[in-house]
């Protein structure tokens, strides 16, 4: 028989461990597989994931406008850099074309 005192003992897990397990669940690993691997009940895993989702939603709701503004600024910055890189690439292509023409012209002489 099982020891009744042992059945009442709860295990506690630190926040880093919980986050790692939640990452595994979010990345596609099944709750059953994770439960068996770590010896944690599936319902506990679902509860951890639900609580983490609530925390994420509440944190993003507080500063939603700030995040949106930062993301918009980042997008604008990346688009400008992308255009600059496209221009640089075109210049380099033309320079390579000119250099290869001059190289082929000198080797035939």
What can be said about this structure in brief?
This protein is an all-alpha fold and 109 residues long. Helix content is 83%, strand content 0%.
Helix content: over 70%
Give a quick account of the main beta sheet: strands, pairing sense, barrel closure. Answer: none
Order of helices and strands: HHHHH
Would you tell me the structural class of the helices and strands?
A: mainly alpha
Share of residues in strands: under 5%
In angstroms, what is the radius of gyration? Answer: 28 Å
CA-CA gap between termini: 98 Å
Low-confidence stretches: none
Question: How many domains, as an integer?
Answer: 2
Mean of the pLDDT scores? 83
Number of helical elements: 5
Characterize the overall form: elongated
Query: How many E-type strands?
Result: 0
Walkthrough of the structure:
This protein has 109 residues and is mainly α. The protein has 2 domains: 51 residues; 46 residues. The protein has 5 helices and no strands. Helix 2 crosses helix 4. The protein starts with a helix and ends with a helix. The mean pLDDT is 83.
Question: What are the defining features of this structure?
Answer:
5 helices; mainly alpha; about 110 residues; 2 domains
Topology:
Layout: H1 4-8, H2 15-26, H3 31-38, H4 42-62, H5 64-108
Helix pairs in contact: 2-4
